[in-house]
Amino acid sequence: MYLTSNIDDAINYSTSKGLKLIFVLGEKNKVLNNKASIQSVSLNKLLSKELVTVTKKNRSRKVLEITSRIIESKSKEIVFVTDLEILFDRSLEVEPVRLLETCAKHKTIMVLWPGDKTSSGLSYATPSHPEYRNYKASDLRDVIFLTI
């Protein structure tokens, strides 16, 4: 796990180590205003638009394929994924971090994390919430954290 507060450092470290997943903790505009080489994608809208045409029974099987296609369709080598709360919907039966790691095999993905980073890892929602997720730091060894 690599921690930085500089976008260029995160990208350079990503390139040098072959890591392609960067979790951004902070404001979306700070990333977009600083880097013209980064293309943004709002996942909730695009993914839900495609999933609505898939039967409920098949959605869990299609979410990775559709998400990968959305990210791969972007022309830039670095894709900034925002608005990814849809991935936490339990009916989709996916692990959001694992899905993002899979999508990051061909392009560098910067993810605006909608939850919190704690000393023990990442979390989304509160423990009593049905979409609550908690990821231990030991499960996030091959990712970069950018705090801006």
Q: Level of helix content?
A: 25-40%
What overall geometry do the principal axes of the alpha carbons give?
globular
First-last Cα distance: 17 Å
Order of helices and strands: EHEHEHHEHEEEEE
Ranges with pLDDT <50 over ≥5 residues?
none
Taking the sheet with the most strands, its summary is:
6 strands, parallel
Count the DSSP helices. Answer: 5
Total number of strands: 9
**Multimeric organization:** single chain
Using the CA coordinates, give the radius of gyration. 15 Å
Helix-strand makeup class: alpha/beta
Q: Strand-residue fraction?
A: 25-35%
Q: Could you tell me the mean pLDDT?
A: 91
Strand order of the largest sheet: 1-9-2-5-4-3
Tell me what the structure shows:
The chain has 148 residues and is α/β, with parallel strands linked by helices. The protein is built from five helices and nine strands. The protein has helices spanning 7-17, 28-32, 43-51, 56-72, 96-103; strands at 2-4, 21-25, 38-42, 78-82, 108-112, 116-118, 121-124, 133-136, 144-147. Strands 1-9-2-5-4-3 form a six-stranded parallel beta sheet. It has a three-stranded antiparallel beta sheet with strand order 6-7-8, with no helix packed on it. The radius of gyration is 15 Å and the shape is globular.
Salient structural properties:
globular; 9 strands; single chain; six-stranded parallel β-sheet; 148 residues; alpha/beta; three-stranded antiparallel β-sheet
Task: Describe the SSE topology.
Elements: E1 2-4, H1 7-17, E2 21-25, H2 28-32, E3 38-42, H3 43-51, H4 56-72, E4 78-82, H5 96-103, E5 108-112, E6 116-118, E7 121-124, E8 133-136, E9 144-147
Parallel strand pairs: 1-9, 2-5, 2-9, 3-4, 4-5
Antiparallel strand pairs: 6-7, 7-8
Helix pairs in contact: 3-4
